[in-house]
Amino acid sequence: MTTPKNIQLTKFELEIMDALWGLGTASVREIQEHLPESRRPAYTTVQTIVNRLEEKGAVRRAKKIGNAFVFEPTITRKSVHRRLFDELLDLLGGSARPLMSHLVESGKVTLEDVREMESTLNRIEAEKAVQTTTADKQRKG
User: Fold this and answer.
1) Residue 141: its pLDDT value, please?
2) pLDDT at 68
3) Mind spelling out the 3-state secondary structure of the chain?
4) Which residue has the higher pLDDT, 138 or 11?
5) How far is CA 1 from CA 9, 22, 25, 72, 104, in A?
6) Residues 68, 27: contact at Cβ < 8 Å?
7) Can you tell me the distance from the alpha carbon of 81 to that of 65, in angstroms, rounded to the nearest whole number?
8) What's the pLDDT tens digit per position in 56-100?
């Protein structure tokens, strides 16, 4: 899967992509049936959104079974989330502190989440230290 930086998705397109990421590959009917029944859109609505996603390069036709195309995502969930987070941070002036503060105050981040983030930060710092040491040795050697 590719991770194009310029693909912007609407909330509804994200819902369709979420269904497709969950299914892996799927026809329009399968995507529609995977959406919550309480607010499931019409088949033709899902078909229109899938066609838009194909035009944007977010999905592609993997194969054809009878008259139905089977689609697969060409972008990862992680790349889409990363872009959304980057855009949000840009709106906040580049600082994650207002977002983190809100998440903590609203109860959306637990102490366990903070510990996991700290562990991830420590791992990343350790990896950077190894890379710096390796680069220094290569320059000297």
Assistant:
1) 65
2) 94
3) CECCCCCCCCHHHHHHHHHHHHHCCEEHHHHHHHCCHHHCCCHHHHHHHHHHHHHHCCEEEEEEECCEEEEEECECHHHHHHHHHHHHHHHCCCCCHHHHHHHHHCCCCCHHHHHHHHHHHHHHHHHHHHHHHHHHHHHHC
4) 11
5) 17, 15, 13, 10, 33
6) yes
7) 31
8) 999 999 999 999 999 999 999 999 999 999 999 999 899 989 888
Architecture of domain 11-73: Orthogonal Bundle (1.10)
For the chain, what are the domain ranges?
A: 11-73, 77-107, 110-141
Q: Give pLDDT tens digits for 127-138.
A: 998 888 887 778
Q: Which residue has the tokens 């309480």?
A: 38
Length of the chain counted residue by residue? 141
Label residue 133 left, alpha or beta by phi (over 0 means left) and psi (-120 to 50 means alpha).
alpha
Is pLDDT at 124 greater than 70 in this prediction?
A: yes
Residue found by looking up tokens 């109860």 in the block:
107
φ and ψ of 68, to 5 deg: -100, 135
